[in-house]
Design the sequence.
């Protein structure tokens, strides 16, 4: 099974991804996480994409598609959870072609919907462990037991450099202009596999709703 998680920054895609990969045994492919780790590790790809990420703009489609291809090729038998990808119609079509070539398809698109004001509130209070990457949120939870310290590994919690008010505003605009058109795109292409959930609800309630729609009892 292959699932796409769609929604604005701050909708809770990463949080829901953690539960979904476990429940449905999927390979988690978060382009944002992959790109952040390339930058952190100082790779050639990292150097190429840094300017786009720092400004809240999208990494060019060709680079994104190449990155996805290199990962899916290494895991031919796995079902995938695409988190934060595709973000443009060009990426969506590239993904469809890639999957078709392997005799696969997208089974579900999960669209997590939230208001801009809530997205801004969540993103500005988001923290991630500088060592292991675990996510926290000091406004909505999950909260760290000790202020600014990761529960899992003891690393320092940091704010993502693109989680500042100005860049968040730009990312939301980029989302509206380039990514939101995918809502109608996928509704039209796969009306039965399109799942819309209200991301302002509690994490567990959003998860249960997605789970029920993917796997009706
Ligand atoms: P995210 O962690 O999903 O919020 O992504 C952080 C940043 O990575 C975005 O603001 C973009 O600069 C870049 N990025 C992540 N995924 C994509 C994608 N599918 N297409 C283009 N840029 C992306």
Sequence:
């Amino acid at each position: 099974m292959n699932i796409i998680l769609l929604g604005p920054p701050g909708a809770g895609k990463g949080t829901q991804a953690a539960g979904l990969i476990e429940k449905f045994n999927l390979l988690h492919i978060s382009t944002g996480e992959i790109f952040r780790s390339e930058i952190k590790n100082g790779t050639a790809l990292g150097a190429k994409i840094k300017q786009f990420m720092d400004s809240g703009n999208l990494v060019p489609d060709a680079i994104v598609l190449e990155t996805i291809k290199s990962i899916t090729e290494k895991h031919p038998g796995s079902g995938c959870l695409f988190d934060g990808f595709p973000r443009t119609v060009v990426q969506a079509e590239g993904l469809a072609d890639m999957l078709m070539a392997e005799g696969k398809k997208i089974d579900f698109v999960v669209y997590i919907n939230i208001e801009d004001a809530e997205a801004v509130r969540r993103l500005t209070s988001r923290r991630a462990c500088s060592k292991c990457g675990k996510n926290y949120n000091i406004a909505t939870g999950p909260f760290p037991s000790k202020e600014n310290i990761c529960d899992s590994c003891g690393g320092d919690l940091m704010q993502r450099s693109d989680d500042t008010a100005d860049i968040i505003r730009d990312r939301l605009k980029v989302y509206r202009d380039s990514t939101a058109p995918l809502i109608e795109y996928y509704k039209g292409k796969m009306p039965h596999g399109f799942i819309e959930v209200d991301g302002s609800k509690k994490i567990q309630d959003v998860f249960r709703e997605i789970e029920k729609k993917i796997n009706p009892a």
